[in-house]
Structures are given as C-alpha cells and as structure tokens.
Specification:
By secondary structure, this protein is an alpha/beta fold. The two termini are 20 Å apart. Bound molecules: alpha-D-ribofuranose and calcium ion.
Length: 311
C-alpha cells in the first residue's frame, strides 16, 4: 500500500482519541503530516492538550499538533461535554504531555502544507470543520492539492444526535461543513447512518482491552466511558464508534459501502439547523460526496485490535 499523506483535524473527544490511536498505529500506510485541533466536544485548550496526550500514549512525538479555531465560523459555540466528560477524555487520566504544541495556527499549517505539497494530501476531519473551511476560504486554490476529505458528520436515516435533525459535528459548525461540501473536493462522509453500525459492545471492548498495549487499554477505557452514557441494552449493544470510521476507511475501504449523493447543509437556523439533506437521486454533476451507507462493525474492531496491538 502506498503511504497516504494525511492531516487529521479533530476535537478530542473520546472517539477522536481512538481515531488518532488507529492512525498513529499505521505508519506503514499513513504519513501523518500533522494533527490540527479545533474546539468542539470541549474547548480548544482541552482538545489541544488531549491530542497531545493521545500522541504521547501512541509514542508519536514525531507528529506535530497545531491548535486551531476556538469557535465556529458564524454560529455561537456549542459543545458535547455531556458525551465526553469534563476533561474531554472520559475517565482517562489526563496530564500535561511532554511534547508541546507546534508553533503557529492550524489554519496556517493546513494552507502552507497544501501549497507546498508535491502530492495530494488527504484530510481526515473528525470534529467541526472550522479549520479546513477557513483554510479553503483563505486560499481556495488549496482544494486542488486535496486528494480526499474524509469526514465524520451528518445524518440521513439515522436522525440527529444533538438535535432531532442534526449530527453534532455539522450542527457545531454548519457553515464550515457547507464550505467543505462546495469546494469541489472528493468528499467521503461518514454520518450516523454508518457509525451506528459500529458499536462498542462489551464483548468487543473486552477483546480490545485484552490486546494489552497502553493504546488498546486506553481506547477500551474510553469506550467503556461512552457505553456508560450511550449504550442502551434494549436498543443497541454499545456506543457508536464515530470518528475511527474515517481512519478505518483509509486503512481498509472494503469495510464500508459508500454511495454518491448530493449532500447539502441547512445553515439558516431554526429547527433543522445543521441538518444534512442527503439526496441519492442527484444527477452526476450534482453529486458532491460519497455517503457511507454500510459499515462492517466487526471488521472495524478487528482492525483496531490488530493495529492498537502494534503500538
Ligand atoms: O456526532 C459524533 C461526532 O461528534 C464525533 O466526532 C464526536 O467526537 C463528536 O465530536
Ligand atoms: Ca470528534
């Protein structure tokens, strides 16, 4: 497999953390140019610290972490603290990491890295898309240097998870999601329709913990925290594993089925604010994203066990 140049933009966040661990565990496949952080699940100071904590757990101090936007482009800031705990990393022990943040703003890093890239770069976006959207506003020409935007966000048949009709990442910055979806880039979008098929059942969490590495144990602890909040034995076996689907796609696309669609975002406020309208009946010139419709949950967990066992 040719190594893919990758920037991960995230808001760690319990599931962002597992996505980062999975990516850090795949140096053979992913050349991670940098991690950029945004406010989302919790405030920017915490998301930036949390990304550095996860980097230290993975032993990947070679990957720079840049702090980015502290608030969405237009709307007022919202967070998802109820799902991620006061630290943003559930019950995981938090500490001041050894390696500092990289100098400079994440948006500047994205722009200068893409301008200088001698081959197209993939962007994995697992939080509100503010950083990448502002980079595209700052220099629209960087879109030509983007190989693929793989984003976790949106919902179609699954309904919303932060309002009745909106998924958190898109709800937290709908205008940013609109910028990504209208930039002319190849977009692969993992909404709740797919991530609700990747559930951290107690059996899967136990198997991950038994892998025995620090990374596997940390990921299992994060999932247990989420299960304490989101598992609903009567409805689903465990909490959905949202953000790692983006990295699993990059490592093994056979784990998913995607379908071309026109995805539009409601940015006008009101009851449907942040809603993603996913239209599969779009004509070929209207399609702006590949929307994930199926996910192999067992396969994603087998990939996690294999990769986190190597850290
Ligand atoms: O709706 C799920 C998304 O919102 C995930 O990215 C999770 O980390 C939260 O940010
Ligand atoms: Ca996230």
């Amino acid at each position: 497999m040719k190594r893919r140049k990758l920037i991960i933009d995230c808001d760690p966040g319990v599931d962002d953390a597992t996505a980062l661990l999975l990516a850090f565990a795949a140096p053979d496949a992913l050349d991670i140019l940098g991690v950029t952080v945004v406010a989302g699940n919790t405030g920017l100071v915490q998301t930036a610290r949390n990304a550095r904590i996860v980097r230290q757990i993975a032993g990947r101090a070679d990957v720079p972490v840049f702090a980015g936007c502290a608030r969405p482009m237009v709307r007022e800031a919202v967070d998802a603290g109820a799902f991620h705990g006061p630290s943003g990393l559930g019950t995981l022990a938090v500490f001041e990491p050894d390696a500092p943040l990289a100098e400079g703003h994440a948006v500047d890093f994205i722009v200068r890295t893409l301008r200088a890239a001698d081959e197209a770069v993939t962007l994995a976006v697992t939080g509100p898309a503010t950083n990448l959207a502002l980079a595209l506003v700052m220099d629209p020409a960087i879109a030509a240097k983007i190989d693929e935007i793989v984003m976790m966000g949106g919902a179609r048949s699954a309904g919303g998870n932060i309002t009745a009709s909106a998924e958190f990442n898109v709800f937290a910055d709908p205008h940013a999601a609109h910028v990504l979806l209208t930039a002319g880039c190849r977009v692969t979008m993992f909404g709740l329709d797919a991530t609700y098929q990747v559930l951290s059942s107690p059996e899967r969490v136990a198997a991950l913990e038994a892998v025995g590495t620090d990374a596997a144990r940390a990921s299992a602890e994060l999932m247990r925290f989420s299960n304490g909040i989101e598992a609903d034995p009567g409805r689903r076996a465990g909490a959905p594993l949202h953000d790692p689907c983006t990295i699993a796609w990059l490592l093994d696309p056979s784990l998913f089925i995607v379908s071309g669609a026109k995805v539009a975002v409601e940015t006008n406020g009101g009851l449907a604010f942040g809603h993603t309208a996913v239209e599969f009946r779009a004509g070929p010139r209207e399609v702006n994203a590949n929307w994930a419709v199926r996910a192999d949950g067992a396969g994603v967990f087998a990939l996690l066990n294999e990769r986190l066992g190597s850290l």
